[in-house]
Amino acid sequence: MFLNCTLISVLIGYVFSESVNFAGLFDENESHEKAFRYAVESVNRNIQEGEFTLVPLVTNSVSEDQPFPTQQDACSLLSQGVVSIFGPRHPADIEAVQSVCDAKEIPHIITRWNYFPLRDSTEINFYPHPSMLSTAYFDIITALEWKTFTVLYEDDEGLLRLLDLIKMAKDEGFLVTVIQLDRYHSGNYRTVLKDVKLSGQKYFVVDCEIEHLKEVLLQFQQVGLMNQDYHYFITNLDTHTEDLMPFLYAESNITGIRIINPDNELVQKISQELFADDENAIPEIVAWSLKTETALIIDAVHMFSTVLNDVKKQSSMPIINNNNILQCNDTSSWEQGYTIVNLLKTSSHEGLTGLIKFNTEGFRSDFQLDLFELREGGITDIGTWNTSNGLSITKKSVDQPVSDGDSLKNKTFIVITTLTDPYGMLKETYETLTGNDRFEGFGIDLIQKLSEMEGFNYTFILREDKQNGAKDPKPPHRWSGMIGDLLEYRADLAITDFTITSDREEAVDFTVPFMNLGISILFRKPFTAPPSFFSFADPFALDVWVALAGVFFLVSFSLFVIGRLCPDEWTNPYPCVEDPEYLINQFSMSNSIWFVTGSLMCQGSEIAPIAVSTRMVAGAWWFFCLLIVASYTANLAAFLATENPVELFKDVHSLYENAPLHNIKFGAKKNGATEKFFMNAEDGIFQKIGQYMKDHPEEQVKENDEGVRRAEKELYALFMESTSIEYTTQRHCDLQQYGGLLDDKGYGIAMRKESPYRKRLSTAILKLQASGVIEDLKRRWWEERRGGGQCSGTTESAEATPLGLKNVEGCFWVTIYGTILAFLFVIVEHLIYVLKVSRKAKISYFQAFTQEFKFFLDFNSNVKPVLSRSSLDKSESEDAKTKSKSRSTSRSPPPSKSKTKSLKESLNSKSNGTIRSEYPYGFIVPSSVERLEEMQ
Fold first, then answer.
1. Per the annotation, does 488 bind a ligand?
2. What is the DSSP string of 281-337?
3. How far are the Cα atoms of 277, 841, 873 from residue 866, in angstroms, in the given order?
4. Which helix H or strand E contains 745, and what residues bound it?
5. Binding residue per annotation — 721?
6. What's the pTM value of the predicted model, to 2 decimals?
7. Other CB atoms within 10 Å distance of the CB of residue 67
8. Of 162, 183, 558, 566, which alpha carbon lies 20 to 30 A from 351's?
9. From what superkingdom does this record's organism come (predicted)?
10. Which residues pair with 537 in a beta bridge?
11. What is the pLDDT of residues 116-141, one digit of tens each?
12. Are residues 772 and 865 in the same domain?
């Protein structure tokens, strides 16, 4: 009955209310759009007669730092009629939308940190003002009695957030160091943190995105910067929303702030409604997951709708005309826009983020922050800060010693382990060793460190089959392996690469993880692809080669056209004749192409431009060729010497897709936690891999060492824990890890259920992590001992590697193919020429080809006659005369010397004149008697 009345009241409100559009510009962050729609729905649920009904218009495809498309999206929303625009998030996009809103007098609602807030504009930022936040930071650091600190920021925006704090601290005499956590955005902060550790600094201000905060703190812990000596102040207002359980026992002094109070009834009520459709949300703690920006969106919608309804009730004039449709390409604007903006800036509202109130300049400078510390009991509030009273500390920091029942001093434990590198190994020695002295490794050293801290004794025993433990599916469901040994009291502790899983935790207890890891893929390194046939073309991309070809023909055509238009290019073929009958032009189309080709090849040609215009074209082309050839030459050596690796896959998805294509097999350790991870997967790619493992049990390996050998010799991908992969790749240089971690888990020390010393050991492990001892042990056994480090730190040879034939074979083949193509062209050209000659001379094609071929075979002469019908007849008659004369000569005596002498004198006497030849046209007249004799 109550639901029906509520529904009727909502319907009545809709009927008698006016609809107004609220616009939102959001990116791929679904939580912001979800909060916006939820806020609109919650306002509509409570509408009364005569009030506005809100309609959300959402664009959820805004790209980061793409101002022009974002501005177009804003214009599109304005054309549909809106009274406000919420978002976007990125600074460049905000400025683009703000310019549109200012022109159209539309309120622009911002809910994120912005270093450059605007006065006298339609922007209303619900996020606390930057200068007031910096004042809060400084007050907190002063109260913590820091005199020096290091600022660790993630990106440029983080540095801007802390700029005012740095200035305040320096003005007060603080020693401040500023360091960027990850300049290259690789996700690896350890390099910087190791340098920070060497600096001796103990106090840190950390500013990073909330998505990266936990990883940053984990890497702080890994490098030994997380113990009682170190103090942290985290500026992110959403720090309390992260899972900080791994750092509860680190004994570091971690301080944070928040603007949302999760214990507030309104926050809890709205959080439960907002996350009602989230199956993984826990109702009791869901309020701790509410992010600041999400809460600000809800507060902004509620406050804006309240102001809009108040204006409507107090004014008889219509607030919205023509559905408030505005176009970006005209001068129209919303007359009531600045009225709404000014009312928002002068109003107050109690929301999820506390009291929302703006100062006279329109900035939210009146707000309250909660100050908290991370202690063993969890997040503990220790004070508040507001603009009126400043910082007020309500609880002092206290040292809380760990108390966990009975002490471990003088107790003796049986510790079971396996011979699994590098966790447990037999010492390499010629001496006979007994007892604990037989073993060494990471797990052995870890137990030794724990015993030194807690004062217990231990004795190692071996599990020969290296089985961690599996549950028998048949009743009575006994456990095998080391878990069975624990349950049957053959051992008290178990340490090796022991993965903590839910099944195992039902049977035994684990300490906190002494090592965090995940499943990844071990496979051989990418092999080097052979150089391509056209490797010499690699210095330029395809579009550059296409453009170069286009410019080549364009310049050739331009020279041809300009050469014909330019009078200076028409020259006299006979310089000795003043008035020639005709002029010639050297820039035919073929000559133009040849000139451009010679210039591009840096060879030149016999053609030289004469006119100013053609020389300008030639000069521009030469300049272009200079730059192109220089660029090509600069890149050619690098590209010819570069060998591109061929990756068969990159991650788990591409492995599953490409495995059939490349005949890649994959598997995991049989009956191990990795295999069970895939076997128990319910959907997605992991389920498909698990099904493959069930269908191909022969691909599963008994030990990881067997999988490593297969990965080296075959196309075999081994799913293995990332720590084991890291150990393997330090010793097998032809293997590497592919893709990221497929899950997140850890190795722990196992013991029986309800063990009284579990918490003691867990606390000791956390202390070893915080002090960097575990990281040192890992470095020792992974990178220094037993062949570690041989695959890292390799440097390339300083000597240049000579290029092989594979690198440059394309150049040779281009030359060979060009020569062969030239031969083909000359044969075709010669056959066509012979055809033309045979037609002109009116002789058969065979006769013309025979004569041409005869002249071709005469390699001692560079002269050949012009073929004609008469010349062919005379040549044949002369051949006949020569033959008959030779026969008669053989029968008669040789001519007398007097006749020969008279012939020579006759020729010599006419040497200054013209000697007429009776030979066919085209033959060269002999210049001497000796040559004449040869011809006769």
1. no
2. --TTTGGGG--HHHHHHHHHHHHHHHHHHHHHHH-SS-S-SGGG---TTSS---TTH
3. 98, 10, 13
4. strand 745-747
5. yes
6. 0.50
7. 18
8. 162
9. Eukaryota
10. none
11. 666 678 889 999 998 899 999 999 99
12. no
Whether residues 40 and 136 fall in one domain: no
Q: How far apart are CA 304 and CA 344, in angstroms?
A: 7
Cα 134 from Cα 128, distance rounded (Å)? 10
Residues 685 and 570 in one domain: no
Q: What is the pLDDT of residues 464-488, one digit of tens each?
A: 888 888 888 787 778 888 888 888 8
Asked whether 308 and 83 are in contact (CB, 8 A), the reply is: yes
The tally of domains found in the chain comes to 7
The CB-based long-range contact list for 313-316 (8 Å cut-off, 24+ gap) reads 313/50
- Which residues are registered as beta bridge partners of 374? 379
930 assigned binding-site residue = no
| Amino acid (one-letter) located at 405 | G
Is there a contact between 364 and 118 (Cβ–Cβ < 8 Å)? no
Rounded Cα distance, 308 and 53, in Å = 11
Same domain, 431 and 381: no
Q: What are the strands of the beta sheet with 390-393, ordered from one edge?
A: 175-180, 148-153, 203-207, 231-234, 253-258, 368-375, 378-386, 390-393
CA distance 625 to 633: 12
Q: CA–CA separation, 120 vs 930, rounded Å?
A: 109
**Cα 250 to chain center, whole Å?**
34
Asked whether the CA dihedral 272, 274, 280, 285 is positive or negative, the reply is: negative
In a domain, 21, yes or no: yes
Contact at 8 Å (CB) between 206 and 177?
A: no
First to last CA, the chain: 134
> Residue 35 corresponds to which amino acid?
A
932 is a domain residue:
yes
Reading the block at residue 214, the tokens are: 């936990």
DSSP H helical ranges for 647-721 = 652-662, 673-679, 684-695, 704-713
- The whole domain housing 872 covers 823-885
Closest-CA residue to 457 (of 465, 466, 467, 447): 447
Amino acid (1-letter code) at residue 338? Y
Residues 829 and 906 in one domain: no
Q: Encoding tokens for residue 805?
A: 């034939």
Residue 192 CB partners (closer than 8 Å, separation 6+):
152, 179, 180, 181, 182
Question: Please, which pLDDT band fits residue 368 given cuts at 50, 70 and 90?
Answer: very high
Question: Would you state the pLDDT for residue 929?
Answer: 45
Q: What is 765-780 written as a DSSP string?
A: HHHHHHTTHHHHHHHI
